[in-house]
Known about the structure:
By secondary structure, the protein is mostly helical. It has ten helices and four strands.
Amino acid sequence: MKHIISAVRILFLALFLFLVLNGKMIIWLALFAVSLIGALLFGRVYCGYVCPMNTLMIPAEWLSKKLNIQTDDPPKWLRSGKFAWFALVGSVAAMLLAKRILHKNIPILLIWLVASILMTLRYKPAVFHNLICPFGAIQKVFGRAAKFSKRVKKESCIGCKLCENVCPSEAIEVKSIEKKAEIETSICLQCSNCQQVCPKDAIHYSK
Length: 207
Ligand code: SF4
Ligand code: SF4
């Protein structure tokens, strides 16, 4: 399962680089738009399997841990959660202005790709996923209404927290009173990390 997921991510990364380097960024943006409709039904599958930023953040996090440079807390200016929306408006405005005034396409997706790697070298992936990514901000809105998503079967959960430790977006949390894990669908990337480590097979993708 893990290898299939990695292969899917690498294929989409290759497609992304091919399209961007050939000036076909619009095709990727169209794919992103379709993924928003998909998120209403299937959750943020784009973020977990298709997004090139998520794919490259995985080795970036590994490197950060190896070099021991990752910190736990996000910077203060990010904590309000509004930055991602400013980033979205800023990115769209920059693209439109560059096109209108300079008659050029700025490689906004590549810029965000580099930003995601740099941020993940310093901060946990959840910081970029939940507080910075402009694409994640929109996916969050659509993902909240997902008909299908990873869910926890409460009667099977023993509250061991193994799932919390592997979640890239801090979407799963063992509640202190109940001692059962719960998933926040709007920030769940549907990546299956939690499902793969759960010793009780308590996490499933379901309605
Ligand atoms: S890993 Fe499984 S059993 Fe452990 S807290 Fe998470 S859902 Fe519950
Ligand atoms: S680890 Fe589980 S809860 Fe966290 S993003 Fe992946 S599928 Fe969602």
